[in-house]
Write a structure and sequence with these properties.
The longest helix has 17 residues, at about 90-105. The protein has helices at about 5-10, 25-30, 35-45, 50-65, 75-85, 90-105. Helix content is about 60%, strand content about 0%. The chain is mostly helical. It is globular.
Length: about 120
């Protein structure tokens, strides 16, 4: 792993040792994001960032729904739902099911040895 991804992983782990996102699989996926986007997502997953996370998630979901417009895309919808799942209990079970599917069908997405930060 690179130094940047190590720092991000360290930031995502709370003082109790629990992953701030609630699921260690989420931390593995965030680790694969490009530098600046991963840092932003790590910041948004911190418990103290709740009042930034909720509007950000809502705006991303709205942008995903309006994906037919230029500059907006469907990629915004799952990202917004993942952010909202931190604060909406009904979405947490769906997020867990998606992570289970990823573990079964796309295990290389969770493999830290294939992190995008290591590939140049």
């Amino acid at each position: 792993m690179s130094t940047v991804s190590d720092e991000r992983t360290t930031e995502a782990v709370g003082t109790t040792g629990e992953i701030a996102g609630g699921d260690p699989r989420l931390a593995k996926l965030v680790d694969r994001l490009p530098g600046r986007m991963g840092d932003t997502f790590t910041y948004l997953l911190k418990p103290s960032s709740r009042w930034v996370r909720i509007p950000s998630g809502t705006l991303l979901v709205a942008g995903g729904v309006l994906s037919f417009l230029p500059l907006l895309g469907v990629w915004m919808l799952p990202l917004g739902l993942a952010l909202l799942a931190e604060d909406v209990p009904a979405l947490r079970s769906s997020r867990s099911k998606v992570f289970d599917w990823i573990e079964r069908r796309k295990p290389h997405w969770l493999d830290p040895s294939t992190s995008k930060n290591d590939q140049t």
